[in-house]
Amino acid sequence: MRRILGIALAILLIGGVIGAIVIGSEKPEGTATKTVRGVIGSEKSDFFRDPDVVEALKDKGYTVKPETSGSWAMDQLPLKEYDFAFPSSSEPAQEIEAAAGVKGAQTTRPFFSPLVVVARANATKVLADNGLVRMTGTNSGTLLMGPYLKAAGEDRTWQQLPGSAPHGELTGTVFIKTTDPATSNSGALFVAATSNVANGDTVVSDDAGIARTAPLMRKLTSVQGALAPSTDDPFRAFISGSGEPLILAYESQVASLLMKKQTPAQLGDMVVLYPDTTVNSPHTFVPLTEEARELGRLLAEDPKLRELALRHGFRPQDGLAEFTAATAPFAGHLNPGLTGIRQVGAPTVKVLMALAARAKGQGDTP
Questions:
Q1: Helical H runs in 130-250?
Q2: How many angstroms separate the CA atoms of 43 and 66, rounded?
Q3: CA 253 to CA 313: how far, in whole Å?
Q4: In this structure, is the dihedral angle defined by the CA atoms of residues 129, 132, 137 and 138, taken in order, positive or negative?
Q5: What distance in Å separates the CA atoms of residue 225 and residue 212, rounded to the nearest whole number?
Q6: Residues 6 or more apart whose Cβ sits within 8 Å of residue 76
Q7: What confidence tens digit (pLDDT) does each residue in 66-90 have?
């Protein structure tokens, strides 16, 4: 009996040792296997810093180390040092592919975000009373681009708008604070949309169209003074109570703020205006190395990562129902279905960059 018991114990001991070896050799679930470095638009920095996003990516085998840059400046970076680039729209993605020598890369568009104008309530009321804005919700409305561009072309000041007298803080020329259209995606797409309206609701496609719209693009830009390199700083300044009364931003920045359960007092008197003519911003993932190729697909298709993108205010591709459900408590600020918004195409990269240069007072030809 003792001999049998000894043999049994020996078998158990050997089995335990083998089990420990097997378990020890297995990689713990959630351990990252690839570390990838990427350059992203600043509006996505909070998403990639989110501990839940970090953990979700780790579970899929990735540690992501992001750096920020203006989308239209990414093609000037030493791209060989990165595994991916993640600009804010498809247009700069084309330039990045060419600069990196990966033309035809399997790009993905995990999510998108329309441009909005974030406004103070007093500024919104004055604009609405003068036919430049149409209110659609408690804290949302539509910016009527035709009337707005007419006022901008005439160098209209706040003081010249009837009803502005009680609001002494509204002074000087009426303008929207944007980013640098030569380096920042939001600034470039605003030029794309405004030039479309100024060109008779037609995409600018030639020298004549550039010459026709450039003077107004220059006015819209020069009145702002120094141009921000990204939407992040102007938006944070607005939320803090400083900054201009009209700020160009991404809807995702607003939606993310709302979904952080901000109280009305914390949001202040913010009104979200959707330009009635806009160019959407599909954030485009460009893999520069094999290590990052799968990451773009995961961002687009993985249910957990889509859920987290929603939490940061982005609209997943083919995700209108998801976005509408996630933002339902904030319907007074947002326009989930983009009702009444005309979405237009952007000019070619060559024409858009020529327009951006002319907007900054540089160059005469595309």
A1: 145-153, 185-198, 207-222, 232-239
A2: 12
A3: 6
A4: negative
A5: 23
A6: 99
A7: 999 989 999 999 999 999 999 998 8
Residue 134 phi/psi, 5-degree rounding, is -120, 120
Q: Give tens-digit pLDDT for 224-258.
A: 999 988 888 889 889 888 889 999 999 999 999 98
Reported pTM: 0.86
CA–CA gap between residue 294 and residue 105 (Å, rounded): 12
Q: Which residues contact 311 (CB under 8 A, 6 or more apart)?
A: 50, 256, 259, 326
Sign, CA torsion 319/321/322/323: positive
Q: Residue written as tokens 């889509």? A: 306
Distance between CA atoms of 274 and 335, rounded to whole angstroms?
8
Q: Which residue has the tokens 């991404």?
A: 250
CA distances from 140 to 147, 269, 338 (A): 18, 11, 12
Distance from C-alpha of 75 to C-alpha of 93, rounded to nearest angstrom: 8
Q: How many other C-beta atoms can be found within 10 angstroms of the C-beta atom of residue 26? A: 9
Please report, as a single letter, which amino acid is at residue 38: G
β-strand partners of 108: 285
CA–CA separation, 250 vs 227, rounded Å? 17
Residue bearing tokens 């600018």: 204
Q: What span, in angstroms and rounded, lies between the C-alpha atoms of 8 and 318?
A: 60
Fill in the amino acid letter for 17: V
Calpha distance 309→52 (Å, rounded): 11
Say whether 274 sits in a helix, a strand or coil.
Answer: strand
